[in-house]
Design goal:
Blueprint (H helix, E strand, L loop, with lengths): L1 H63 L3 E5 L10 H11 L11 E6 L14 E5 L2 H14 L2 E3 L2 E7 L3 H11 L2 H6 L4 E4 L3 E4 L3
Antiparallel strand pairs: 1-3, 1-5, 2-3, 4-5, 6-7
InterPro entries: Transposase_22
Keywords: Coiled coil
Protein name: L1 transposable element RRM domain-containing protein
Length: 199
């Protein structure tokens, strides 16, 4: 009889220990579940904050590039050893711009490694103007006078934007043929603001 009571006591103690272990495991799981639920609840807010920060970062990058102008189609080595003097001459003689005062640049250089350049696809030249007004004048003149050529090569000009803004602009520009075919008026304003009428 005493042996049976001892066995029951041991079994009861083992069961109590198991129950205590289960309770501890359940408590741990409950805490982890609460943490996951809290994370899920805050994720939309974090996504909105991240989206807002990305937008601000893109705007700051676009603002930092507002004095830059990109030139496409200028043959490699055409600029010689003094790229700033070459560009000043190009703007006067081929774009017909009479600057006052003469254009000043913070920096001018080709974009990308030289080994990737070719006669059919020369590297772009990017110029950072000292005066924002002169950068805008170059872009507006190029748009009004296009096409502009240099020794038989068509020269194109574009404002300089962040990668995200360029992607947004390209996505809209891809829609232009469809908008024209539907006789829908549209506009693309810097940096990437779209206006569509008749919708």
């Amino acid at each position: 009889m005493d042996l049976k009571i001892t066995d029951l006591t041991l079994a009861s103690s083992s069961i109590c220990a198991d129950i205590a272990g289960f309770r501890e495991t359940a408590n741990n799981l409950d805490q982890r579940l609460s943490a996951v639920e809290d994370h899920i609840a805050t994720t939309p807010d974090q996504e909105e904050e991240l989206k807002s920060l990305r937008a601000k970062l893109t705007e700051l990058e676009d603002r930092s590039r507002r004095d830059n102008v990109r030139f496409f189609g200028i043959p490699e080595q055409k600029e010689g050893s003094d790229i700033k003097t070459f560009l000043s001459s190009l703007l006067t003689n081929h774009f017909g711009i009479e600057f006052s005062p003469p254009p000043e640049f913070q920096r001018v250089h080709r974009i990308g490694p030289s080994h990737k350049a070719s006669a059919n696809k020369p590297r772009p030249i990017i110029a950072c103007f000292l005066r924002h007004e002169q950068a805008r004048q170059v872009i507006s003149t190029a748009k009004a006078r296009q096409p502009i050529s240099l020794d038989g090569h068509e020269i194109r000009v574009a404002a300089d934007f962040s990668r995200l803004t360029n992607d947004r602009r390209r996505a809209f520009l891809a829609l232009r043929p469809q908008l024209r075919s539907l006789d829908i008026k549209y506009g693309l304003f810097e940096p990437a603001r779209h206006i569509i009428d008749n919708i």
